[in-house]
Each structure stands twice: as C-alpha cells, then as structure tokens.
Amino acid sequence: MHDELLLEIVTPDRLAFSDVVEEVTLPGVEGEFGVLIGHVPFLSSIKVGELNYTKDNKKTYYLVGEGYAEVTGLKATVLVESIEEASSIAGEEAKEELEAAQARLALLSKDDPDFEKAKKALDIAETRLKIAEKS
C-alpha cells in the first residue's frame, strides 16, 4: 500500500468514489493542481471545476462543486458539495445550458446583485460542456 494513492471523494450525502489511482488533478482556488503518490501533505479549497484521475492509464472526468481537499503522501480526500461524472452529462443539454447562462448574463450589468450568481452559473455551464466533450 506504500506505493498507491487512495482517492476518496465525499459529498454531503454519500461516499461518491473510493479507490486507488495513479494520479488526480483538482481545481484548487489558487489554480489546478495534481497529486501523485508521495505528495507533500496540505489542505486546499476546491472551486467548481474539473476533477480527473488516472487509473490503469485511463482518465476519468468529473464536474465537482466547491469544497476542500486534504492531501497526504498516500491519500487524497476530496469533500465537495456535488459531483457529476462526465459520462452522465449530455453534450447537447450542456450546450443549451451554456447558451441560456450566456443570455442571462448578457442582460445584467456588473452592478446588478444577481450578476455574480449568473457569472457562477456561466462558469459551471462552460465547465459542464468542456467535461461532456471529453466523455
């Protein structure tokens, strides 16, 4: 077990994933970061974005909500609000969501109280479409 990296992804209602992986890439608030076996221990906030891991030389992609990651030399624990596997995201639906989010944001000024919420929805829609295209 000393040469394996355990990845656990937890949401408020379930353990979404737990398995040994070769590497994991996470969307940190300070930027994307990768974790390999033996990584230096640290904590990081996670932003909405793409999480991917490699197992048996195959990448698997997820859309994750905000949360936190704790990394030790042999384990990465990711606590996120939500998770959605790329294979469950319909490309056409994601494209329609992106177009709707762009239209909503175009109607708002930067001073509007709903601007930041609409901007976040646009970021999520862009990420969903990007991830859907990878599956």
Number of domains: 2
Low-confidence stretches: none
Structural class of the secondary structure composition?
alpha+beta
User: Sheet bearing the most strands, described?
Assistant: 5 strands, mixed
Helix proportion range: 25-40%
Put simply, the count of helices is 2
Query: So, CATH architecture of the largest domain?
Result: Sandwich
Number of strands: 10
Determine the CATH superfamily of the largest domain.
F0F1 ATP synthase delta/epsilon subunit, N-terminal
Please indicate the percent range of residues in DSSP E strands (runs of 2 or more). Answer: 35-45%
N-to-C order of helices and strands:
EEEEEEEEEEHH
Q: Give the CATH topology of the largest domain.
A: ATP Synthase, domain 1
User: Rg to the nearest angstrom?
Assistant: 16 Å
The CATH top-level class label of the largest domain = Mainly Beta
Strand order of the largest sheet: 2-1-9-8-5
Q: How far from one another are the termini?
A: 30 Å
Tell me, briefly, the overall form.
globular
Mean pLDDT: 93
